[in-house]
Amino acid sequence: MQPDAPKIEFPCDYPIKVMGPSTPDYKEHVIEIIEMHAQDIDYSRVTLRESRDGNYYAVTVFITATGKDQIAQIFESLKKSDRIKMVL
Question: What total of structural domains would you count in the chain?
Answer without folding.
Answer: 1
